[in-house]
């Protein structure tokens, strides 16, 4: 019976964590970006049902032109950003259409980056709950580099 209670608690916590996952909203999957130019990446952190503390994020880019890209939990590729993550609500949410806390991060796509299919990789590190359990989540967005 104790095993069942522990399993249910673990499943509930994991479900809560997944429901709170931060993600890259822009650029969207399939968008084009330009080598040698700056790019605004909009990272959304949905409302949380549990207390959490942000630690930071890292964003990278990998070329997928000559071989399939690895998932972000294996590599971030060329690092574009590594630092603080302080998502905020927009003051005028109706005007921006953004109703979740988010942060715009401007990065520079290297000028010599391989043109073609690429993947923007994202890693998010945060502490969850009263016990401040550490979590790392990752995700990817597929783009085309021009």
UniProtKB/TrEMBL annotation:
Leader sequence segment: 1-19
Look up the domain of life of the source: Eukaryota
InterPro entries named in the record:
Nis1
Q: What is the lineage of its organism?
A: Eukaryota, Fungi, Dikarya, Basidiomycota, Agaricomycotina
- UniProtKB keywords: Signal
| Protein known as | Uncharacterized protein
Q: Does the keyword Signal apply?
A: yes
By its UniProt entry, which Pfam families does this protein fall under? Nis1 (PF19271)
């Amino acid at each position: 019976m104790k095993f069942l209670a522990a399993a249910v608690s673990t499943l509930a916590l994991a479900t809560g964590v997944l429901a709170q996952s931060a993600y890259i909203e822009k650029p969207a999957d399939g968008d084009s970006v330009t080598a040698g130019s700056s790019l605004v990446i909009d990272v959304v952190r949905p409302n949380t049902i549990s207390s959490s503390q942000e630690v930071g994020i890292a964003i990278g880019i990998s070329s997928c032109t000559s071989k399939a890209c690895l998932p972000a939990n294996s590599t971030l590729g060329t690092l574009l950003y590594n630092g603080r993550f302080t998502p905020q609500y927009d003051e005028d949410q109706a005007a921006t259409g953004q109703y979740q806390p988010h942060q715009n991060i401007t990065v520079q796509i290297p000028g010599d980056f391989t043109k073609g299919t690429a993947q923007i990789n994202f890693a998010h590190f945060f502490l969850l709950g009263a016990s401040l359990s550490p979590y790392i989540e990752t995700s990817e967005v597929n783009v085309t580099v021009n």
